[in-house]
Amino acid sequence: MSGPERCPVTDWQTDFDHTAPEYAADAPAIWQELRETCPVAHSDRFGGTWLPTRHEDISAIAHDTEHFTSRGVIVSVLEPQVPAPVGYAPPISSDPPFHQVARSLLLPAFAPKAIRPIEAPTRAFCAQLIDQILSDLPASGVVDAAEQYAQHIPVRVIAHMLGVPAEDGDRFRGFIHRILEMAGQNDEPVAPDETMIHYIFTQIEKRRDEPSDDLIGFLLQAEIEGVPLTDDHVGGTIALILLAGIDTTWSAIGASIWYLAQHPEECARLIAHPELMPFAVEEMLRAFAPVTMARKVSQDVELGGKQLHEGDWVLLPFPSANRDPEFFENPNEVILDREKNRHAAFGLGIHRCLGSNLARMELTVALEEWLARVPEFELADPEAVLWSTGQVRGPRKLPIRILDPGTSTTTMGAR
Amino acid sequence: MKISFNREACQGHNRCYLLAPELFDVDDEGYAVLLVTGDVPEQLHAKAQLAVDNCPEYAITLTEENPPA
Predict the structure, then answer these.
(1) What is the 3-state secondary structure (H, E, C) of chain B?
(2) Based on the structure, what is the number of domains in chain B?
(3) Mutate which of B8, B15, B16 to test chain A, going by most A C-beta atoms within 10 A?
(4) Which of the listed CATH numbers 1.10.10.10, 2.60.40.1940, 3.40.50.10470, 1.10.630.10 matches domain A12-414?
């Protein structure tokens, strides 16, 4: 993939680049250093971008919709074209008061009780994936847990919710790579019928003739104050669900497996004490939160002694907030039964991740099913683990060696 | 021990509902609903504390009935 030449980062305080491979590989250490030396860092890259790293500042920005707009949530040299309050992918790109209207429409579909019926199919998807991995297991026992397991789970779950064929998942991963991982760096033209927008509008057209009870069908039936949603609103929301629900969850599952591969004693503990799983899942989310959001400054404002100007980008590295020692005891330690854990993995304030209940369910089920069938595994080659760049951080290559392919087909959840 | 819940601060993280379902339900949009008024039964004190300690929005507070003077 071609892109503009990237200048290497020489100073993270004044020239950070969140799309650099060295940032992806070592982000927690970079955040820690910045928190101690320059808690609101700046870079001229992407037209001027700020990087706050303390929980207090990140929380303040997430709760301040007056000075910070969600018009842009992916830092890029490209300016977001659709103005707030609606934005290009409502409600993530929306500001109050429209935000609440667009969000209320979607909340019931992602509420905890609405997610429950998706748990059984998710468990079945995970079990199928593990069946496949174990039946194809090479003599070395080495598999890629990111490519062969983690990435497929959210793709299938989102396809299930949208009501599109599971096979379309390969295309979703292509959209994500182009739009999120290579944001603003990709100058290769894309054939018009290969774009995500084309895909989404094809799905919409299909349902105009044949109404469906999936999420796309639901949005087509939905109304705001008696008026159907515009096609752009429906398309933008589908784009959001498709983009936001996949590489994020895939990252959280992958990072958790990466951690567990290095801590066999913690695997054994979780297997022996399944009641710890809800705490362990939240601790994984805290320690390995995948998502850094962004805002644009909508009114000049001071933050941590720095003057932010209208139009500047601001990154919101929630994973850095989750490692702030002023907010968490022993933040760099993974404590699976941590009882005090106000983590911000799903953001803070009015834009709390819409899919958080879904993601939490997927992560829980993915780990339960994995540990039930693959109780012993280790990193096959720690150097070969590759972390994604950009605003979603997780392992994209995760070679592990399965030491004891369990024979049990009874899943933890079925006990 | 008294518990109170600030619905304005709640953003639907659902941590309280997961940790203390005896004390919190959720509505159709996923926002918390406090199930008890006033006193938290003795056997639920630990769960109430968990709900408080895991709410990212500080929407839940506990107060001792007879705060020391």
Answers:
(1) CEEEECCCCCCCCCHHHHHCCCCEEECCCCCEEECCCEECCHHHHHHHHHHHHCCCCCCEEEECCCCCC
(2) 1
(3) B15
(4) 1.10.630.10
